Amino acid sequence: MSADILKALGLDKTNSGSYLGKGEWSKTTSAGVVQSVNPATNEVIAEVHASSQADYDTIVKRAQEAFEIWRTTPAPR
């Protein structure tokens, strides 16, 4: 059943874990894996690669850059 869900969502059994912004997903595979488990059946639905320190540094830097642009956006009238 979980394979059907993953297919419908366009996901693989093991997926990238960190969205780094600017359309880029982390390719880190050495930081371990987090399992997504169905609590009703204890079945592992999928796995997600954990983020590395470098991933977090990139995420924070890009979030700060995006904030600088966003904060100058005028409010709708």
The largest beta-sheet arranges its strands as 1-5-4
Structural class: alpha+beta
* Number of self-contained structural domains: 1
Low-confidence stretches: none
Span from first to last CA? 48 Å
Mean pLDDT: 89
Using the alpha-carbon principal axes, give the shape: extended
Radius of gyration over all CA atoms, rounded: 17 Å
β-sheet strand percentage: 15-25%
Helix content: 25-40%
N-to-C series of helices and strands = HEEEEEH
Task: Output the number of helix runs.
Answer: 2
**Number of separate strands:** 5
The main β sheet shows up as: 3 strands, mixed
In short, what is this structure?
Helix content is 34%, strand content 23%.
What does this structure look like?
With 77 residues, this protein is of the alpha+beta class. It has one domain. Helix content is 34%, strand content 23%. The chain has two helices and five strands. Strand 2 (19-21) and strand 3 form a beta hairpin. The protein is extended, with a radius of gyration of 17 Å.
